[in-house]
Amino acid sequence: MIKDDIRSYFPILNQEINGHPLVYLDSAATSQKPIQVIEAIKNYYEFENSNVHRGVHTLGNRATDSYEGAREKIRKFINANSTEEIIFTRGTTTALNIVAQSYGRTHVGEGDEIVITYMEHHSNLIPWQQLAKEKGATLKYIDLESDGTLSLEKVRATITDKTKIVSMAYASNVLGTINPIKEITAIAHEHGAVMVVDGAQGVPHFKTDVQDLDCDFLAFSGHKMCGPTGIGVLYGKKALLENMEPVEFGGEMIDFVGLHESTWKELPWKFEGGTPIIAGAIGLGAAIDFLQEIGMDTIEKHEHDLSRYAIDHMQTIKGLSIYGPQDPAKRSGLVTFNLDDVHPHDVATVLDMNGIAVRAGHHCAQPLMKWLQCTATARASFYIYNNEEDIDRLVAGLRTAKEYFADVFE
Amino acid sequence: MSLNNLDQLYRSVIMDHYKKPRNKGALEGSNVTIDMNNPTCGDRIRLTLQVNNGIVEDAKFDGEGCSISMSSASMMTQTVKGKTVEEAQNLAHIFSDMMLGKEYDDSIDLGDVEALSGVSKFPARIKCATLAWKAMEKGVQNESENK
Is the pTM of this model over 0.90? Predict the structure, then answer.
């Protein structure tokens, strides 16, 4: 387990909420930021702020070096071949939309198939739904096993030679399921389809190696991995990105502009129209330094241990049901649950009055809620700064909620 | 533990409406049907009304959601039944003011609805309470525009 002194790097954790020390269990929505990241952004604005890739002046060079330095940190972090394959975006949603609108529009036609799963976040569902509608293609869903995992048999049965794109979450934001991306990528490739990975709930939590996975695209967000909001990454294989058209046009992304024709900069800049998210990228670079100092393997183990501890203790509450794989080895660091007939909003309000922040609702995954046959759930998600004491507080809070509402449902 | 704070939200009247919702189901022969949901949390309601000659003669609701949204729907139907469209719209305004923590017109007897005043202290839950009222407002407005 990661030592507790890590919490001292997160100023926000040192406060009381509704008269109780804050227990933050909503990192799957957004993680907290360590002082190193906050300082990096502050330092940029205090000493380097300038536009990138255009200034002849010294500040412009400093800003460009820091911005491009962050790109190199990200390349190393996910083991991409080259920084040409690392495109800065606003977040996972934007990254996935670039793939759908650029690659998708030119490679998907009438009668083709796009394959996703029932566990997708809306951001990895609606871009494909729109593309399928526009092109007259079919959007197919891989069915889930009863424990919320994917079976390779069903993956094989769904992907066909008509499939042009397979897209799925590395880890589910509701079930916690970690999907066998490497194996599924191989199946997609056998059929000539490209593999798109929504890494929003994966990249922050365990080692991601795009060359080992052999995926064609990977999208993720900075703010779920200790970085600031408003910055994310689209990784794409160079050979694919080279043949893709930009989706945003304007300054920064052009090579030559004529009255009736223009040409684009080389990779990765042709996808980064306008003044880029400079401070965001630098903040994300600092977040990656911070995570790597702890070690992604250590982070993964820490979250597994916490999930196991949480599942063991939450299961002692009568009437509490946990969704997704019960085996902590098959899941990431989050637990989605419902408590008897108490609506998750009511559960979350009682927890909030105890200083405990959890998510309640449909988690931007309405088709999955339908599959689970519920309209909403509550979710506790863990990160590096959480410890067993946080989970003890959660369990105590849940018992309070159960007692509080007991007379309503007797 | 701030149980006292929780009691401001979960008043016994509210829990009673949650446990035993009034006017639950679909109204047969209704002439107004409104579906509304709260996209951020998944709560949804179908409100059916019988509006004739500018009067909300009958109202029923169906749906899924938390104790606040469902009890509020139950109370709303109870309150607007028999009221004129104008009175119902006025009640919706009063309710909205109450939720925003503003001073509201207390000359009108709100009955059980008054119990929801504590929701204003829980900003995250205001949308739960207002869902049914928004559906009603939309419903009576559509009906009066059609006339």
Answer: yes
